[in-house]
Amino acid sequence: MKRSSQSNEHRKKRTKTYHCSKERVGGSGGGGNFQVQANMSGVMVTCTRSKESRSQKEVIDLFEEYAKKLYSNDDDSKEKDNNEEEEELDLEAQVAKELAELKQPTKDNKQSLFSNISTNMDCVLFIKTRSPVEPVSFVHKILTDLKEEKKQRTRYTSRFLPVENTCHANLNAIEKMAETMFKPKFENNSKSFGVICRIRNCTKLDRMEVIQKLASVVGEGHRVDLENPDLSIIVEICQNICMMSVVEDFNELKKYNIESILGLNDNGPPPPKNKSKPKPEESSVEKE
């Protein structure tokens, strides 16, 4: 009987252990496979390990706050048009319209500007955006405000990397996407640029080959400058998908690292020096 009670206690302890570890399943808060697909725009987010779900919530809350500030006029104009349209409808038509809307339970989800797409990776989220949100200018605005205000808005989030577009992770697809993306940004005047490429969980591509291919797409008349470029080409390759964007102020905004912008990664001032002279015995011990 004693063995039976001891085994039951052991099972209870093991159950608690599995329950705690379950928080890490599905790194992007939701589990499943890597679900980012080609032709998506959004923001790649890096965060604290095992805090993906909390990071997801605080990031979407922050994004929705900024979307309300930046795009509220667009929503107001749409709402005004809808109200005017409803005023023109008679009572019977309004009832029919409301019934039709009730038959579409997924409408609210479709209208959401931000949605989390599973990456199934630790510390990495992908927040898909919908028009009118433009990821590059949207993220730049948030980070610029953080730099000016020095006010911490997130606790578990480290970096925002805007994603203008995605494609399959092969050189031909990457080159084709780059040609479309680079043309309006490099066609006028000579610009300096840098390519920042990171590859995660993908063995079929070589980092330097990707960088050289993108530099060739930029073309002549522009120069490479990794210290202070006019434009930075950000490339994140995860499994079978390539995420890319062309951004400004990448180095000035601390490589889009939130913690560095706020000075949270600084070592801080050096400790004050002890003005009192050490005793001879203490000094000799320190030297040894």
TrEMBL record:
<feature type="compositionally biased region" description="Basic residues">
    <location>
        <begin position="10"/>
        <end position="19"/>
    </location>
</feature>
<feature type="region of interest" description="Disordered">
    <location>
        <begin position="1"/>
        <end position="35"/>
    </location>
</feature>
<dbReference type="GO" id="GO:0006400">
    <property type="term" value="P:tRNA modification"/>
</dbReference>
<feature type="compositionally biased region" description="Basic and acidic residues">
    <location>
        <begin position="278"/>
        <end position="288"/>
    </location>
</feature>
<protein>
    <recommendedName>
        <fullName>THUMP domain-containing protein</fullName>
    </recommendedName>
</protein>
<feature type="region of interest" description="Disordered">
    <location>
        <begin position="264"/>
        <end position="288"/>
    </location>
</feature>
<dbReference type="InterPro" id="IPR004114">
    <property type="entry name" value="THUMP_dom"/>
</dbReference>
<feature type="domain" description="THUMP">
    <location>
        <begin position="145"/>
        <end position="248"/>
    </location>
</feature>
<dbReference type="Pfam" id="PF02926">
    <property type="entry name" value="THUMP"/>
</dbReference>
<keyword id="KW-0694">RNA-binding</keyword>
<dbReference type="InterPro" id="IPR040183">
    <property type="entry name" value="THUMPD1-like"/>
</dbReference>
<dbReference type="GO" id="GO:0003723">
    <property type="term" value="F:RNA binding"/>
</dbReference>
